[in-house]
Design brief:
heterodimer, A: TIM Barrel, Rossmann fold, five-stranded parallel beta sheet, 25 helices, 49% helix, B: alpha/beta, Single alpha-helices involved in coiled-coils or other helix-helix interfaces, 3 domains, 14% strand
């Protein structure tokens, strides 16, 4: 009789690549941070760009105000990229960039920066996120309409497959779908449908014999929530679907090209502001979802920091998360075994269930004509799922320890310092970056830049035959063009675009006694105001995380208000003009990117200058120590992630409007 | 505290665009004091006060969801502003039956420069008039027409909204996308009135759009509606057909007797408002729809909707 095979592998597996999503203030400061992180045992880079860089604006642009250097590093030109990567061996480094609409541009800058170090593009390794469909659905940093955006992606794939063969030109993101409320089934189905749209577009741009190679270079960027058993099943299901897709739709047969390759940032959505130390165990458990089973283990992992719901993490906070990875990889026995779920009835059952659901949902997306055409459908479905999730938390059905249950707490020493335990970016970096760009422009060959941008426009218009957009993009990077100039040139040709908001299609609320009572209060308010209370909801600045604002909009409608939902990327002047024209009784603003100190007081000032007296409420990631400042600037109320009771927020709004009408203040807005 | 209706009316009459938001707040209000002031405001804008109908071109833009109305509206507004015509857009969205609230999302889809005071966008809910246009919105559209060169009322869909917009607008444009045979079927079946201008969007789709345009033109001719122009537009850059659409809208308006059309529209609207408020039974008490219509026909052309409803109500008591 054969002795049973040893459960141990001959040699433990090599650990996954360990990264920290990092970058802030300036290229120089971020470079120092990267080098320190690498010294601490981090094995790859994950570059966080600031929102102006992600959306294609230079510091100094009206929309960039308050955002420069906040959620990431500002990179405006070749010189910035060189400073960012100074002293880092680009031939060996594996660099992941969270960059989408402007991915082609940032890759071009990276290629040109490497070139100046004598490193050829053919050896560069890394990933550009480059997934535009999820930007339309969930993250909001798009720049161009869907058609031209897909063309840029397809061109990048065609270019890298030939010239930068170790580069992953796109990371299909299910990550942000989960943040936007996706159920596991939706996460699988929408990301797979998205991949199909990308691969179909690429098929048009590359010779058929390299299609298998293209398929093999597509990677995924996934999320893992705290329900880690089901989350692990989700990844196994994705692996099965991916392989099937490769074989059946794209004729790939090489097993190494059919493997699902994915990187992870575990869930930030579930991290709480209340008792934030609990986030550490959440992060650990979420990491199990993507490491436990060898057959569906992540290639690269970055963990959020414990304090992300409070503000920007400091280097020490990020180090803690890196150490979590290192303990898991080097202290535990995780990497010594074959897949520990093989043969598990529970795991197989979960996978089968998810596969059934995902296939059905993929069919619905296909009926809409594919992922690009189905963006409005998917967006509305996500808004609905997110609403259901929030309802479950509000009702206590879904337990969040420290937030809706077990809320008694001792004072936390972790948040006791003056800054509240977060990183505060010096507002002076914005002016520095404006001056940096001016100095760069003064030094460069202006005519060469003009010529390069003209050539870019020519190719974009399609007047240069089938020329790949990467070619004039790299030439413009070399000539010294800026991020804002590159994007403006393409915006001129492609036009700008506003994605669907999903809120108009959100279904009506289910019966709810609390909401019924609230509707009564709203009806009573109509008698006071003479018309139905009207609220303007919008997001000033470049922050595209609209999930929260959308939920507030939908709930306000369900409470009986008329809701003007303005969407993302608004200037303070636009918000003030809208509030005036729409005659709203209250204005709700949402910011998660840290630009509230620059933008919110400006909005309030402009509203009052227009004669709009409507109270202003603010929601988002607002550090405790900034609240007083916003209140002093005239903000009536500030809500943060710990305020999960949205119906309660609605009740506050009704009270605010009633008070402001009762004070005999001038009629809500725009009254003569 | 109610706004001063009379002074707002005078400001609108003098084409002070800055008075428009406050005027709209007043006209939408049902508070008794506001109703009184709104009356004073409208008096300043009556045909007697103006020496004729408000001069602005009232355009109704309607069509099924997803046909591309907002994007088209954005392009149309841009074209008009480039020609230095002032534009007011009333974007009407349905109200939720359950909560009475509404989500007004069109504003997010229309590009607007906050410094441009010649473009006003106001989102309004249809209210109880399901899918249609609330009476205050009709009053608002007329008031704005005294002040802006062009007033566009945008509504979703077919049915009540389409009838309401036909009674309000000088020119009704129905927007359809290529490949959707619905509009054609509705027109043939008489569910939908024949529009003044038919717009086929997404003409960047090329062949499909051209074919849709030909089919619609042929169908309209077979119905004897040869005056209805069919225009193909693409709102994607480079936008196409927008100037042609504008020309078609203007040609239509030049063809009609605006005073007569508006007066007839007000009579229709008054009859429906009366029925909505007092019910079919009340209509029967007046001797039926035809008798009520005859009563309205006998009234002067200058009377506004409220005054016309008042005439019918007098007969009730």
């Amino acid at each position: 009789m054969d002795s049973p095979a040893s459960p141990r592998r001959e040699k433990p597996d090599r650990p996954w690549m360990m990264r920290t999503y990092a970058g802030h203030s300036t290229a120089k400061a971020s470079n120092e941070l990267y080098r320190r992180n690498l010294e601490k045992g981090q094995t790859g880079l994950s570059v966080a760009f600031d929102l102006p860089t992600q959306t294609g604006y230079d510091a100094g642009d009206e929309l960039a105000r308050g955002e420069v250097g906040k959620v990431g590093v500002p990179i405006a030109h070749r010189g910035d990229m060189e400073a960012l990567m100074a002293g880092i061996p680009l031939a060996e480094m594996n660099t992941s960039m969270t960059i989408n609409a402007t991915a082609a541009w940032l890759l071009a800058l990276y290629i040109v920066a490497a070139e100046s170090e004598g490193v050829e593009e053919s050896v560069l390794q890394g990933t550009t996120q480059n997934d535009i469909i999820k930007e339309f659905l969930a993250r909001g940093t798009y720049a161009f309409p869907p058609g031209p955006s897909m063309r840029l992606i397809a061109d990048m794939i065609a270019y890298t497959v030939e010239h930068v063969p170790k580069w992953n030109p796109i990371n299909i993101c299910s990550y942000h779908l989960q943040e936007a409320g996706a159920t596991p089934v939706q996460e699988i189905a929408y990301s797979m449908s998205n991949a199909i749209a990308v691969l179909d577009a690429a098929r048009e741009r590359v010779p058929s014999e390299v299609m298998a190679k293209v398929f093999g270079r597509i990677s995924f960027f996934v999320n893992a929530g705290v329900r880690f058993v089901e989350e692990h099943a989700k990844l196994r299901a994705m692996g099965i679907l991916w392989e099937q897709l490769g074989r059946e739709r794209y004729g790939v047969s090489d097993p190494s090209l059919l493997r699902l390759r994915y990187g992870v940032q575990v869930n930030s959505l579930g991290l709480t502001e209340a008792q934030p130390e609990n986030n550490v165990q959440r992060i650990v458990l979420e990491m199990l979802a993507v490491t436990l089973g060898r057959n569906a283990r992540a290639r690269a992992i970055q963990l959020p920091a414990w304090n992300e719901a409070l503000g920007l993490p400091r280097p020490w906070d990020q180090q803690w998360s890196l150490r979590i990875q290192q303990v898991m990889a080097y202290e535990t026995d995780l990497l010594e075994y074959d897949d520990i779920f093989e043969g598990s009835k529970v795991m197989d059952g979960l996978v089968a269930e998810l596969l059934d659901g995902a296939r059905a949902e993929m069919a619905v997306v296909a009926e809409h004509g594919g992922a690009v055409e189905a963006v409005p459908y998917m967006k509305a479905a996500l808004v609905d799922s997110h609403r259901e999730r929030l309802r479950a938390i509000e009702s206590g059905e879904q337990v969040v320890v420290g937030m809706n249950r077990f809320t008694e707490t001792e004072e936390s020493p972790l948040t006791a310092d003056a800054e509240g335990g977060i990183l505060v970016v010096d507002p002076a970096v914005e002016q520095q970056q404006i001056e940096n760009i001016a100095a760069w422009r003064a030094e460069r060959d202006e005519q060469a830049v003009r010529r390069a941008l003209d050539e870019l426009a020519t190719v974009a218009r399609g007047d240069a035959g089938e020329t790949n957009l990467m070619v004039p993009t790299i030439a413009a990077a070399r000539a010294g063009a800026t991020t804002g100039e590159w994007a403006a040139t393409l915006r001129d040709v492609f036009g700008s675009y506003r994605a669907p908001t999903g809120v108009g299609e959100a279904s009506a609320a289910v019966a709810d006694a609390d909401l019924d009572e609230l509707r009564g209060e709203v009806e009573a308010l109509i008698d006071v105001l003479g018309r139905r209370p009207k609220i303007l909801i919008g997001k000033p600045g470049l922050d595209g995380h609209s999930n929260g604002a959308e939920q507030i909009a939908v709930r306000a409608r369900d409470a009986g208000m008329d809701v003007v939902y303005e969407g993302i990327r608004l200037t303070p002047a636009q918000i003030a003009a809208s509030a005036l024209q729409e005659g709203v009784h209250v204005v709700g603003l949402s910011i998660l990117s840290g630009s509230h100190r620059a933008l919110i007081p400006d909005v309030v000032e402009r509203l009052r200058a227009e004669g709009v007296q409507a109270p202003v409420i603010v929601g988002g990631i607002i550090p405790e120590q900034d609240v007083a400042e916003l209140r002093a600037a005239g903000v009536a109320a500030v809500y943060t992630p710990k305020d999960f009771d949205i119906t309660g927020i609605m009740r506050d709004i009704v009270r605010l409007v009633a008070e402001s009408a009762g004070q005999g203040a001038p009629a809500p807005s725009g009254a003569a | 505290m109610s706004a001063d209706g009379r002074s707002l009316g005078i400001r609108l009459r003098e084409r002070d665009l800055a008075a428009a938001p406050a005027a709209l707040n007043l006209l939408e209000s049902s508070a008794p004091a506001d109703l009184q002031q709104a009356r004073l405001l409208l008096d300043e804008l009556s045909p007697q006060a103006l020496g004729g109908e408000p001069a602005g071109h009232l355009i109704g833009l309607t069509g099924p969801p997803g046909a591309g109305k907002s994007t088209l509206l954005s392009a149309l507004a841009r074209e008009l502003r480039e020609r230095e015509r002032t534009v007011a857009i009333l974007a009407v969205d349905p109200s939720s039956r359950r909560s009475g609230g509404s989500l007004l999302g069109d504003r997010a889809r229309i590009e607007h420069d906050p410094a441009d005071r010649g473009l006003l966008i106001r989102s309004t809910a249809a209210g109880q008039r399901l899918g249609g246009i609330a009476a205050p919105t009709r009053a608002a559209a007329l008031a704005l027409a005294a002040c802006f060169d062009v007033v566009i009322v945008e509504t979703v869909g077919v049915g009540q909204a389409e009838t309401d917009v036909a009674d309000l607008a000088d020119t009704v444009a129905v927007v359809v996308q290529p490949g959707s045979g619905d509009a054609l079927q509705f027109i043939k079946a008489g569910i939908m009135e024949v529009p003044d201008v038919l717009v086929v969007t997404k003409s960047d789709l090329g062949q499909v759009a051209m074919k849709a345009r030909r089919d619609l033109s042929a169908a309209l001719r077979s119905l004897g509606a040869s005056e209805t122009e069919v225009v193909a537009v693409s709102s994607l850059p480079p936008a196409q057909g927008v100037a042609e659409l504008l020309a078609a809208l203007e040609r239509h308006r030049a063809r009609i007797d605006v005073t007569a059309r508006r007066a007839a529209g007000r009579r229709e609207a008054a009859l429906r408002s009366f029925t909505l408020e007092h019910g079919e039974a009340a209509l029967r008490a007046l001797g039926g729809r035809r008798a009520a219509s005859a009563r309205l026909e006998a009234a002067e052309d200058e009377l506004d909707e409220r005054q016309l409803v008042g005439l019918l109500e007098e007969q009730l008591s």
